[in-house]
């Protein structure tokens, strides 16, 4: 499972955002490798929680950047972030309750969601930002 590795087609031109996207996708891949290698559940859970916290911090940073551009779609964009936040919170809770609940398929789903979100939504913001510039 390596479908979600960062590449240039995902760049938004915002260096901090791009770096966070790359880092998140790396964390996701690493987590997949841990699961494949049969790591102990607590280790997997810790890595999952680290990834979850990282995503949450990224979303918060991104939302602040968008606010700095008076981005009109910020509320809608934040709702999408909240969907991902909810998904990972639920997954983290269930993974903590029982073994074997965090599958490679689930990680692949998260990766596909994240990459799709970059392509469709983060890049739409980047295009807006390039056109309009930051708030004066
Ligand atoms: Fe993002
Ligand atoms: Fe986003």
Explain this structure to me?
The protein has helices spanning 15-36, 41-67, 74-97, 104-132. The protein has a single domain (8-132), classed as Up-down Bundle (Four Helix Bundle (Hemerythrin (Met), subunit A)), CATH 1.20.120. α1 (15-36) runs antiparallel to α4, α2 packs antiparallel against α3 (74-97) and α3 (74-97) runs antiparallel to α4 (104-132). It has four helices and no strands. The model has no long low-confidence stretch (mean pLDDT 92). Bound molecules: fe (ii) ion (2 copies).
The run of helices and strands is HHHH
The whole-number mean of residue pLDDT values reads 92
* Corresponding CATH superfamily: Hemerythrin-like
**Helical/strand content category:** mainly alpha
Pfam family, one: Hemerythrin
Keywords: Iron, Metal-binding, Oxygen transport, Transport
Organism: Solidesulfovibrio fructosivorans JJ]
Protein name: Hemerythrin-like metal-binding protein
Short structural description:
This protein has four helices and no strands.
Topology (elements, then pairings):
Elements: H1 15-36, H2 41-67, H3 74-97, H4 104-132
Helix pairs in contact: 1-2, 1-4, 2-3, 3-4
The structure holds fe (ii) ion (2 copies).
InterPro entries: Haemerythrin_Fe_BS, Hemerythrin, Hemerythrin-like, Hemerythrin-like_sf, Hemerythrin_metal-bd
Keywords: Iron, Metal-binding, Oxygen transport, Transport
Organism: Solidesulfovibrio fructosivorans JJ]
